[in-house]
Amino acid sequence: MICTANPAFAETLPGDGHDTGMPFVSFRRRTARPRRGDDTARSPLRLAVPLGNREFWADADRIARLTLTAVAAYLLALAVLPDGVPRPLLAPLTALLVVQFSVYQTIRASILRVVAVTAGVLVAVMAASTIGFSWWTLGLTILAALVIGHVLRLREHVLEAPISAMLIFALGAASESGAAERILETLLGAATGLVATLLAPSVRVRPAEEAVHDIAERLRALIEDIADGLRGERTEHEAARWQEAAERLAREIGRTDRELGAAEESVRLNPRTQARRLIDAGVALRNAMETMEHFTLSLRGLTRSLADDERLGEKGRLLTDPTLRRELGDALAGIAASIAAYGRLARSDLARDARPFLAEHDLEVRVDVARERRARLARRLHERAAAGDLWPLYGEVSMDVDRLIENLRVEHRARAREHWRRHRGASRHLPERPVQVVQQAGHQLRRAAGSGRPDRRP
């Protein structure tokens, strides 16, 4: 909790200790570091631990969890299965395969693996009991198991059906009792893996939060570089270099979907109190990344316009006009400060009880400054356009600057926040299609209840 002297402007930020459950590997390459002494650039989720230490302890934690889970599954299978059965190695194997980083993924993997193993075992038992084992029987068994796996939509678990069938042949357990034991081992392993995940579920918000911070800082650094270049001496091929950097950054944004998806899944069905506070973190970070993606598209348009102006040579009136260069540089400097403030805002409202008034006020002030500078630039462009024939290019530059500022308006973020906090119910935990079914059924029930009369008799 971060509070000011005035309670009306108290700002609630997510607390420390967001367990990633896995080592975080950033795709950061040449990210500009925050300015020294700028405490506002520090993430509220960041621990005061070097990255290497966090990776080491995350790896150590996962290795220990997997080892203990597999051993527990084996001991449980020994206790449950009758004496004389082969070593129940399928139980620890299943436990290792189903344990994922999130509760939702573990439940999904457990169900799919149990279905795949059951299908493979049943196919092997039927083949062995009816036609025996031979090379063509093996081929038919694999074919049937693969077909069943695709029909059941096992996806990445589809190969486990024929593998289970071949395991039954290898163990010589192609009988009803042997098949039941293999299925029971799978159930025990899946149950052990699920319990282990429920006992220590992870909240993987940090990697996505770091990705948003990284993109915001890289955008700020690029725009500041363009602004400094415009306010300094003109250099050869400067606009082409800016355009190439904007194109490269646009491609990098598309690689953050994995971190965002992991953040969203890590809070689904997660019993931890911390996960319930951060139930909106995934969608909040995705909204921020989508905003910055639109922002980057506008930045690409601006750099393309500047590159077109540069190709005009001495006929270009923007990059060769010191006054226009200075005005555009000032406007972009204000936009750079605004995107940095937006990055801080995007990382300050991840918790459900967050009220980022200070971050919103900071962004609003910086956007207002950028608007004032943009207005001065527009007046200069109109003055120059009245004396020449380059208004189409000037107008495109002006519209690109407008779009950059419009993307960062506080109202857009506040409206999106209210929307995702009202978004409750089944959609928190179910996939898209079941969500639509549940919501449609609920709407029909409410409509039927509203149309009924209390005095109506059957």
TrEMBL record:
* A cellular component annotation (GO) from this entry: plasma membrane
Q: Where does this chain mainly localize? A: membrane
**Where does it localize?**
Cell membrane
Regions annotated as coiled coil? 232-266
Bilayer topology annotation: Multi-pass membrane protein
Pfam family, any one: ArAE_1
* Keywords of the record: Cell membrane, Coiled coil, Membrane, Transmembrane, Transmembrane helix
Q: Where are the transmembrane segments?
A: 63-81, 87-104, 111-129
Its name, as the record gives it, is Aromatic acid exporter family member 1
Task: Look up and give the organism this protein is from.
Answer: Actinomadura pelletieri DSM 43383
Q: What taxonomic ancestry is recorded?
A: Bacteria, Bacillati, Actinomycetota, Actinomycetes, Streptosporangiales
